Amino acid sequence: MRTIKSTRFKIAEGTIFIILDLEWNQPFIGKDYGFDVSTLKGDIIDIGAEKYIFSNGEFKYLGGLSKAVRPDTYRKLHYHVQKLTNKTNKEIKQGASFKDAFKEYKEFCGDNYILVGWGNSDPEILKQNMKFYGFDNTIGMPFLDLQPIFSSFAGEQSKQRSVEYAVDFYSIPKDDTFHSAWADSHYTGLIFKAIFDNNETSDVLSMVETSVCDPDVVNDFSFVSTECDSFELAVEASSKFPRVCPFCEEAFQVVTKAFRIRKSLYAHYRCEEHGDYYCRIRIKKSKRNKQYAAMLLRFATQADLGLLAEKIEEYNEFGEEGRPAVKIVPNSVDENADTNSDSEG
User: Fold this and answer.
1) Chain Cα centroid distance, residue 70
2) 143-145 and 114-117: which strand pairing?
3) What counts of helices (H) and strands (E) characterise the chain?
4) Whether 181 contacts 23, CB under 8 Å
5) Which end of the chain is more exposed for a tag (fewer CB within 10 A), N or C?
6) 227-233, long-range: CB within 8 Å, 24+ apart, which pairs?
7) For strand 143-145 and strand 58-68, is the pairing parallel, antiparallel, or unpaired?
8) How far apart are the C-alpha atoms of 5 and 213, rounded to whole Å?
9) What SS3 string covers 311-322?
10) What is the H or E stretch that residue 130 is in?
11) pLDDT given at position 326
12) CA-CA distance, 6 to 305, in Å (whole number)?
């Protein structure tokens, strides 16, 4: 396993950013495809990419790429994908082969850039398609997940927001439908630009530089406990999860001791060689009505550490019960009340 030392990445004058969004078809459950479908969880049907440059302290647009791709393995659209993308089986048959589309995408990107996505699922799907269709599946460029960057600057570090929510947050005009690769990459690029335009450049660069990761290295590690008869036993079981660096297996230094808010525990660990790790443990309920602990351990970004600081503040003020939920009471009397405010539903 290739390892990465967690060091600060520097954004220089002329740094190129490629904003990537992919749409992919998925296999039908129970159908025999003649191979292990876990090696190809999604067959790419649409590639959208936008190119930006950081120049003279500004985030500037350079151009875009939109490429329809013909799936050669999962050829019939899964009903969920069809509903989400509004594509038809006839339409996807007219796309280019993945090999041709990928070569064009690589030419568009160039040789030196930072890959940017909304969420971290696209690099994994891209790597699977690269390997499945005969390419070297090494991306070889840093990757930035813009979603937690947006949440941090929007003051919503504990929430995962959609692209459309972020578009509305910055009052970006909506000219295209969402859930097409080109539209989502286009809007993600505009969100990134809005983050630069609405915040101190030094703050944005600091957040970006401490949040890039290596997409060719495993950055997230998951552990699940056995099922327990009670919440308390599940919390106790979580104490048996390994607290060592997954790369060098050296015992962690404890920066922030684990503390609990409601059904989640948080901690901050450090490896002298590989850097800081963010830890979150959630106590969940199984289908058999049992309790179990699930731990996520990952290289800590600045957004992770910001979220951790927010949780520490909440714990210090409210304890294990956490911040009380805010009850929204509908006001049917005030005719001037704002009826267009955002809501998670």
Assistant:
1) 26
2) parallel
3) 10, 10
4) yes
5) C
6) 227/286, 227/288, 227/290, 227/291, 227/292, 228/290, 228/291, 228/292, 229/290, 229/291, 230/291, 231/263, 231/283, 231/291, 233/291
7) unpaired
8) 10
9) HHHHHHHHHHHC
10) helix 121-132
11) 67
12) 14
pLDDT digits (tens, 9 = 90+) for 95-129: 999 999 999 999 999 999 999 999 989 999 999 99
Determine the pLDDT at residue 337: 37
β-strands 114-117, 15-25 pairing = parallel
CA-CA distance, 85 to 182, in Å (whole number)?
Answer: 12
Q: What is the CA radius of gyration of the chain?
A: 22
Q: Tokens for 17?
A: 């950013």
Helix (H) or strand (E) segment spanning residue 260: strand 253-261
Q: Within the chain, which residues score under 50 in pLDDT?
A: 1-7, 330-345
Q: Determine phi and psi for 9, rounding to 5 degrees.
A: -95, 140
Separation between Cα atoms, residue 126 and residue 23, nearest integer Å? 10
Q: Is the pTM of this model over 0.85?
A: no
pLDDT for res 343: 31
Contact 262, 327 (CB under 8 A): no
* Chain position carrying tokens 């909506």: 174
